[in-house]
Amino acid sequence: MLPVLPDRPLRRSDVPTEQWNDWRWQLRHMLRSAEDFSQIVPLSDDEQAGLERTQDLFRTGATPYYASLMDASRSDCPIRRQALPSLSELSFREQELRDPLGEDTHSPVPSIFHKYPDRCLLYVVDRCAIYCRHCNRRRIVGGDQPPKRDEIDDALAYIASQPRIRDVLISGGDPLLLSTRRLDEVLGRLRAIPHVEIIRIGSRVPVVLPMRIDEKLCQMLAKHHPVFVNTHFNHPREITEESQLACERLVNHGIPVGNQAVLLRGINSSVRTLRALMRALIRMRVRPYYLFQGDTVLGTDHLRTSVESAIELMDGLRGWMSGMAMPQLVIDAPGGGGKIPIGPEYLKELGDSEVTLRNYRGLTVRYPQPREKDPHVSYDEVFFAGVPDDDDREGGV
Ligand SMILES: *Cc1c(COP(=O)(O)O)cnc(C)c1O
User: Fold this and answer.
1) Is the distance from the beta carbon of residue 121 to the nearest atom of ligand 1 less than 6 Å?
2) Do the domain assignments include residue 7?
3) Residue 32 sits in which domain range?
4) Fewer Cβ within 10 Å of end Cβ, the chain: N or C?
5) Residues 318 and 377 in one domain
6) For the chain, how many structural domains are there in total?
7) How many angstroms separate the CA atoms of 49 and 37, rounded?
8) What's the confidence (pLDDT) of residue 214?
9) Residue 185 CA neighbour count, 13 Å, CB half
10) Domain boundary among 38, 57, 90
11) Ligand 1 in contact with 292 (CB < 6 A)?
12) What would the DSSP string read from start to end of 197-235?
C-alpha cells in the first residue's frame, strides 16, 4: 500500500528532490502554523500555545529545509527555539521596544537607515525565509508593507546625494529573496554612484534557504565587486552540506562571507557551542564578524543573556581558539547610538611608563611604554597633499 501523503507535504522524505532544491518551492511552502509544524515535530505545549497565541502579534515562518533540521525528540533544539514562538513572547517588559535600535528616527527617507557618517543601510524587501524569534526588525518584516519601487528609487537618490557614504549595507527582510534580475538592477544602480566603494548584503539565506545560492546569483553578484555578504548562523547544527556549499560558492566567486551571530540564552550561550560554531564557520571560510548581545526587542526578553555572562563567554573564546575565529561582542545601542564593543578586560593598569595586562590564562604581563609620544605622522602631509579630508565631504550624519 502506498503511504498516505498530507495535502501539503513538507517533510523532506515526502518531497521530490527537484522540488526540494527549488528555492521558490521552498518559499511557497514555508511552514507557518501549528498544523504545518506538527508535520515535522511533535509540538510541546509551549510551542503549540505559542504558535496559536502569537499569530496576530509576530510573524512566524520557516522554510521546509530549515524545519528539516529540527530535532523531533527535543523542544530545546536550537532550530526549534529560533523558529517556533514560545508563550514567553507575550510577556512584554516596559524596557522592550518595537524599534530597539531607533532606526525609524534615523531614517532620512523611507528605506534608508543612516546612523554612521560613512555608511548606511538600504532596506529593500520585507520578507524573510525564516522569521527569527529574536528578530530586531519584527515591527516591519513579514510581507504587509514591502518597500515600494519609487521608495527604493528615492533611497538610491539619497545615497547619490551623500558623498560621505562609502559603504551601503543592503538588508531587509532578506535581500536575497529578490529575483536575481531585480537585485542586479539595484546593485548596478548603486555601483553607478562614484562614492559608493563597497556593497554589503545581509542575508540569512545561506542558513535557511541555501539552494538559493546558485551559480547564476553568484555570477551576478561578482559583476558588482567589491561585494561582501554577512550571514547569520547561530548554532553549529545549522551547518549542513547544503549551507556549506552555499557559503563556499559565494567565497569561490570572490565574495568574502562574514557571520553576525546573536547570543541567545539557552540556545547558543555556552562556550562549547560558541567555539564549535566559530570553528565550523572558518572551516568553510566564513569569517566570524559580530556576536550580538540581544537587542531589547518586544517579546524577546527570555532570549537574552545577561551582559556578565556574555563577557564570560567571550573570555572562553579569546586565546583558546584561533584568532581567525574570534567574533567581536557588541551591544547595538538602544535608541540608535550604533554598535558598541564590550568584552573581558585585559588591560589592568595604564601607566605612563608601563601597562599591566592579563593574558587569556590569567597570567599578569607588563608591557613597557615607549620613551617618547609622537602621534603626528609627518608623511601624511605628502601622501594626502591636495586630498580633502573625509570630514570635509558633504552629507552624512
Ligand atoms: C550595523 C549597521 C551598520 C554597519 O555597522 P558596521 O559596524 O560597519 O558593520 C550600518 N548602518 C546601520 C544602520 C547598522 O545598523
Assistant:
1) yes
2) no
3) 12-90
4) N
5) no
6) 3
7) 13
8) 98
9) 8
10) 90
11) no
12) -EEEEE-SHHHH-GGG--HHHHHHHHTT-SEEEEE---S
pLDDT, residue 390, reads: 72
246 and 109 in one domain? yes
**Arithmetic mean of pLDDT, 225-246:** 98
- In which band, very low, low, confident or very high, does the pLDDT at 92 lie, cut at 50, 70 and 90? confident
Mean pLDDT of the chain: 95
One domain, residues 360 and 306: no
**Shared-domain flag, residues 36 and 144:** no
Give this prediction's pTM. 0.96
Choice from 105, 114, 119 to test ligand 1 binding pocket (greatest atom count within 8 A of CB): 119
Given a cut of 80, whether residue 3 has pLDDT beyond it is no
CATH number, residue 189: 3.20.20.70
Q: Is 119 in the pocket of ligand 1 (CB under 6 A)?
A: yes
Cβ of 166 closer than 6 Å to ligand 1, yes or no, is no
For the residues 126-136, what does the mean pLDDT come to? 97
Predicted confidence at residue 93, as pLDDT, reads 86
Is the C-beta atom of 116 inside 6 A of ligand 1?
Answer: yes
**Residue 1 included in any domain:** no
Is 261 domain-assigned?
yes
Cα(279) to centroid(ligand 1), Å = 24
Q: Which long-range contacts (CB under 8 A, 24 or more apart) does 30-36 make?
A: 30/61, 30/62, 30/63, 30/64, 30/129, 31/61, 31/62, 31/63, 31/64, 31/67, 32/60, 32/61, 33/60, 36/8, 36/10
**Is 139 within the bounds of a domain?**
yes
Give the mean model confidence (pLDDT) for residues 356-384. Answer: 94
Grid coordinates standing for 153? 528609487
pLDDT of 393 strictly over 90: no
137 lines ligand 1 (CB under 6 A): no
CA of 38 relative to ligand 1 center, distance in Å:
38
Is the CB of 232 within 6 Å of ligand 1?
Answer: no
